[in-house]
Amino acid sequence: MQDFSLYFELGWQHILDWKGYDHILFVMVLCGIYTLTDWKKVLVLVTAFTIGHSITLALSVFKIITVNTDLVEFLIPVTILITAATNILSKRAKPKNIKLKYTLALFFGLIHGMGFSNYLNSLLGKSKSIVAELFAFNVGLEVGQIVIVLATLLISFILVNIVKIKKWDWNFFLSSAIFGISFIMAAERLPGLFG
After folding, report:
1. Membrane-spanning regions, if any (predicted)?
2. What pLDDT does residue 132 have?
């Protein structure tokens, strides 16, 4: 039980760590187009992302797949960039093809899971019983992710319903800011692929 709480804590701290803000930005831009009334859509969207990153996190930790760290670290901001761009290109802040958004969340989750696995593998070292640690870490990631989703939806609610900013203006501001940050991150990580 002590190991569970340790890896659970490491999981939520990892996703909420401002030093590794790329995952925070992804979750924010993923759900930033929605409001609290869209909670069911957000739940499905975040679940798709969770399924994706759980799969590659497990496959990598069990050494079924190996990943090029530099490639994954470059692809993570690319996923953020694409998600932000799809939000910006949505005219009414409501994606026309919601299934495409779910599919992208699942696929991008696969990439983020490989990023999480680099961190978890360094923690596990030569540990033999990694199933419980993997589960606890993943649950911790989810708790951290829920915190980000709730904070983003709450900010959206306040700005759109209380401050009376137009939903599209909020989406455009958030998505554009995150687009710019992720573009710089991707550009900074590109040389690592060829270095």
Report:
1. 20-36, 43-65, 71-90, 102-120, 143-163, 170-187
2. 86
- For the chain, give the secondary structure using H, E and C: CHHHHHHHHHHHHHHHCHHHHHHHHHHHHHHCCCCHHHHHHHHHHHHHHHHHHHHHHHHHHCCCCCCCHHHHHHHHHHHHHHHHHHHHHCCCCCCCCHHHHHHHHHHHHHHHHHHHHHHHHHHHCCCCCCHHHHHHHHHHHHHHHHHHHHHHHHHHHHHHHHCCCCHHHHHHHHHHHHHHHHHHHHHHHHHHHHC
The model's pTM: 0.89
The tokens of 29 are what?
């831009």
Phi, psi for 164 (deg, rounded to 5): 70, 35
How far apart are the C-alpha atoms of 47 and 26, rounded to whole Å? 14
